[in-house]
Sequence to fold (121 residues):
Amino acid sequence: MTDSQRKYLENELNTALGRACEAAREEIPGFQWVTHVVDTSDVSSSIQVVWVFDSNRHLAEALRAGYDAYLGHLTREALAAAGISVEDMDHHVDFDSEEECARVHGGDWKLRLTAEPEHLH
Fold:
């Protein structure tokens, strides 16, 4: 993938996920923001979309209320808008909280998202 293709992909992802983020903020208590991690050499296999809540309590409440299905739907729409197709959406959607990042990684999201992907829910 060339640099211009990477930039285009990132722009498309950021735009699509931004729209999804706004929709989720209107619907889900405690939801804060969304991000993604991707290896551009293998986008469809590596893409991880992480939905971040303010607290562990709000995250747990959202999952109990079934919002994971809604966020999976928003993720699928966003990825499709960016031209990305994945086989099993469950393997590409994760959930986390600001509270947990602060507790475990001192609030360093870059470290949290790149160093320990297994911490995600």
